[in-house]
UniProtKB/TrEMBL annotation:
Keywords: Membrane, Transmembrane, Transmembrane helix, Transport. One of its GO terms (molecular function) is oligopeptide transmembrane transporter activity. The lineage of its organism: Eukaryota, Viridiplantae, Streptophyta, Embryophyta, Tracheophyta. The keyword Metal-binding does not apply. This is Probable metal-nicotianamine transporter YSL12. GO terms for cellular component: membrane. It holds the Pfam family OPT. Belongs to the YSL (TC 2.A.67.2) family. The chain crosses the membrane at residues 39-65, 71-90, 102-120, 152-175, 215-244, 264-288, 340-364, 370-392, 404-437, 457-480, 518-535, 555-580, 592-614. InterPro entries: OPT (IPR004813), YSL-like (IPR045035).
Length: 642
């Protein structure tokens, strides 16, 4: 991407709220100059330190850090401190740029994704002999493996890079055409913009305090998304799940509600069906429009394209750009300049997929190349469905797809052929492909919001992933060899590994292990999701004006899987946004993203502190009484001599 200065080619309406206006005159370097040694040195040290901490939290609590904000802020603090010191003594000539900060964030996300999604607390742990010997079924030698850092490092290198290539071809569609929000990426971008904003902008109170992060999602997402959350919470926890709970002992065994045989099985299948329905609809629409555009180009090359069609397409594109704000026009231009060519991404996907499909069976003989190939064939479609859902609702269902993969591949391979271990391998492959891709699309939204080249961001995340593939298994192996590791009454009870192995054993029973009518309800919910999207698209194309009021099925599905309580927090954020817009729309347009980023960061910090305090015994217990209660307590104590 050629270097340039902001504001050179795009004119700003003075009445229009703008973030990029504060960066006018700041040079944007070429993409290769955004990859600096100081960024990767800091990422190596901070990533290694945080991996030791987060690995323990992940094993003990199955803890997933919200948006990786705290380690990012820690690394940013150290990097800023380092640059200030060097600048003070006159060594540092170039100050840290926000593009370097974004690359650093992408590198750390790639590093920490190995801790979160590598399966150390669930799938890989469920493959171990330590967990296998605690179950009566699946204890044969072909259903467990010995934990060694060597094969784990090789395995993680094989599966964690293919996901980086699956969503890049559709990034322009998700970010530029559909204009999906990606709340986490937006929140991080606003945080970075505020930190790097000139001092005079900060003096205008362009900052915020911290508070729970679900409110931040309500501030960032469109109001129809918040309404969709509420509708989904009411339908699921107010109507459907109470009905299904009343069928315990009839449709599924008593006491099995939290297993794949019971209510949990319904949650997995129904949520998956809704997400697949909406995702596959948009995949079909994109393919149809792609073929239609190809057809028009061929007609144009043959000089037979009708004049009105050509002018219509040109006017539509010009109208779309004209309707964008100053910031979005500038960001779109810079994003397209640094976009990664599609042949490179397709070639990278085919190369990494072929290598891993051939090599993984040498590590796990229970898995055949056809199993890995099938997982990689369906991965791009699942990735798009998941990325679309994240863009709308900020929730990734990739772990749910991973559990669904346990069922599919466990029933396919069978117990006697090593289906327990094979299904866990397939699950970890699906998750390893999907979640790094979801992180990347969030980071690409971050790159879009900060004028960072997608190329430098991709390279940064790939380097961070490589760091994590080496250091993560070494740290895990250290914890695995602790004397009390895996003991129920120890600090490391490894419930995640036991849960995943129990799911894998149940999956080898095939569809007989599912609760009654689960597949039927899944099909019904799939077509309901499809129908809502068809109605929304028809309303949009026919200019009926109904599409802004039709809820998103993907947002409605999230309370089905989690709970309904967080939807109220999102609703509070949406209500705050509505009131703020009514009072001062200009102030809301400029400051709401910054407020949301502060709320998001505060919630992430508290999540980290709460996890660190997990299972800790307080040294002192304190309780407050009213004066009347205290006097009664004192009188009662006087009755007993000391």
């Amino acid at each position: 991407m050629a270097s340039g200065k902001l504001g050179d080619t795009t004119r700003l309406n003075t009445d229009e709220p703008s973030v990029e206006r504060h960066f006018e005159g700041v040079e944007v370097l070429e993409w290769n100059k955004q990859l600096t040694a100081r960024v990767f040195i800091v990422c190596l040290f901070i990533g290694s330190f945080m991996t030791i901490l987060l690995m323990k939290l992940n094993i003990v609590t199955a803890f997933i850090l919200t948006g990786t904000i705290p380690p990012y802020l820690l690394s940013l603090f150290i990097l800023k401190t380092w640059t200030i010191i060097l600048d003070t003594i006159g060594i540092l000539k170039n100050p840290i740029t926000r593009q370097e900060t974004v690359v650093m964030h992408g590198c750390l996300v790639g590093y920490f994704s190995i801790v979160y999604y590598g399966g150390f607390s669930n799938a890989l742990l469920g493959m171990s002999s330590l967990v296998a010997k605690q179950f009566e079924q699946g204890r044969g030698g072909n259903n467990w493996t010995t934990i060694r850092p060597g094969w784990m490092i090789m395995y993680l290198f094989l599966v964690n890079f293919i996901g980086l290539f699956t969503l890049i071809p559709v990034a322009k569609i998700l970010i530029l055409r559909l204009r999906l929000t990606y709340p986490s990426g937006c929140n991080v971008s606003h945080f970075i913009n505020v930190i790097h904003m000139p001092t005079e902008a900060l003096h205008k109170r362009f900052y915020t305090s911290i508070s729970p992060g679900q409110i931040a999602i309500g501030l960032i997402c469109p109001q129809i998304v918040s309404i969709s959350y509420l509708i989904g919470g009411f339908i699921s926890w107010g109507i459907i799940w109470p009905i299904f709970k009343s069928k315990e002992g009839i449709w599924y065994p008593l006491g099995k509600a939290q297993t794949l045989h019971g209510l949990y099985g319904y949650k997995i299948l129904l949520t998956t069906a809704v997400l697949l329905g909406e995702g596959l609809f948009h995949v079909s629409v994109i393919l149809f429009k792609g073929f239609h555009d190809t057809y028009l180009k061929k007609k144009q090359k043959g000089f037979i394209v009708p004049l009105h069609e050509h002018h219509h397409r040109h006017n539509t594109d010009a109208s779309m750009m004209a309707n964008l704000s100053y910031d979005d026009r500038l960001r779109t231009k810079m994003f397209l300049k640094g976009h990664i060519p599609t042949p490179i991404t397709i070639g990278g996907f085919l190369l990494t997929g072929t290598i891993s499909a051939v090599a993984i069976p040498f590590i796990f003989p229970q898995v055949e190349p056809i199993h890995i190939a099938v997982a990689y064939i369906i991965a791009p479609v699942l990735n798009f469905c998941n990325a679309y859902g994240v863009g709308v609702s900020d929730f990734s269902f990739a772990p749910g797809y991973g559990r669904f993969a346990i069922f599919l591949f466990g029933s396919w391979i069978g117990l006697s052929q090593g289906g327990v271990l094979g299904s866990l391998v397939a699950s970890s492959v699906v998750v390893a492909v999907m979640l790094p891709a979801t992180d990347l699309i969030q980071n690409l939204k971050l790159a879009y919001m900060t004028l960072t080249s997608p190329r430098s961001l991709l390279i940064g995340q790939a380097i961070g992933t490589a760091m994590g593939c080496v250091f993560g298994p070494i740290v895990f192996y250290y914890y695995y060899n602790l004397p009390d590791f895996g003991q129920p009454d120890s600090e490391y009870p490894i419930y995640g590994g036991k849960t995943y192995r129990a799911l894998a054993i149940a999956a080898t029973q095939g569809s007989e292990g599912l609760p009654k009518h689960a597949l039927l309800f899944a099909v019904i919910f799939f077509f309901i999701s499809l129908a809502l999207n068809i109605v929304k698209e028809l309303s949009k194309s026919m200019n009926l004006g109904l599409h802004p009021y039709i809820p998103y099925p993907v947002a409605m599905a999230i309370p089905f899987y989690l709970s309904a309580n967080f939807s109220f927090d999102v609703g509070v954020g949406s209500l705050i946004l509505y009131v703020w817009n009514r009072v001062d729309r200009r102030s809301a347009g400029l400051n709401v993203p910054t407020v949301a980023s502060g709320l998001f960061a505060g919630d992430a910090f508290w999540s980290l502190v709460a996890a660190l305090l997990y299972n800790q015994v307080p040294p002192v217990c304190v309780r407050f009484f009213s004066r009347e209660d205290y006097m009664n307590l004192e009188n009662n104590l006087k009755k007993y001599p000391l």
